[in-house]
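re: that chain from earlier
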Amino acid sequence: MTSRPALGKIGIWTAALKTDFAPSEQVSEAAAELDELGYGAIWLGGSPSPDQAGVLLDATSRITVATGILSIWDHEAAYVAERHTALNAAHGGRFLLGLGVSHSALAGERYQRPYTAMKEYLTALDSAPAPVPAAQRVLAALGPKMLELSRDRAAGAHPYLVTPEHTAKARDVLGKEAVLAPELKVVLDTDLDRARATARDYLGRYLALPNYTNNFRRLGFEDADFADGGSDRLLSAMYALGDAETIRARVDEFLAAGADHLAIQVVSGDPLTVLPREEWRTLAEALPLDKS
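^ sequence. v structure.
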């Protein structure tokens, strides 16, 4: 890559900033605060469209806004390329296109040969009237083949639901130049039993998706770890649970393992609809943000 996306070390991953879930004024106000707090990026989850990312770009002036991730089954490549170009022209190049193949349970019959489909989608972005440069897109990659594709045809990878051990292995595949921006779920709660209950309630929905459980197996977990919302061992691997200092220590593990950037998802109540603004403020004081 000739250039890297401007992400800083720490960003926020959330689906609750989609206007599907909250009034546009609340979304814009929360996005503006994340910008002011010094986070490097907002990763908009929940398979967003470029236009939903555009709401956050309109509300901010400095922070990068990324789709985390846009499903290739839901949006035609030509449309995505056109909107990507328009949004970056209007907002100083702050829009990063995060792409993924989603899951068969969500995409249905469209979910055919996902690796091949991603390659074809990238080719369509390359050949669009307004192409999306490789340096302005990242891929949701877990396994070796998709990580290699992230290295060869994108700026890098945005792995979801992973560990520092996965991050180290991903860095080996990606090499030194590609961007590695994993996601980390955190529960800011010093009551460990309660924190585990919160974490387990949210993790359970992912344990029905083979893309994740297959990756967990590659990391050494077994079927018994997937029962009843996840074993304590799985929760400890996939979450940071505790106070801000505990979460900072886990963040440092990811950075030491080779992450360039870490996308923090605060799990509190329902992470898909609740805006955890107080937790974002607490973490902004504890984490290595660029507040200049």
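The mean pLDDT is 95.
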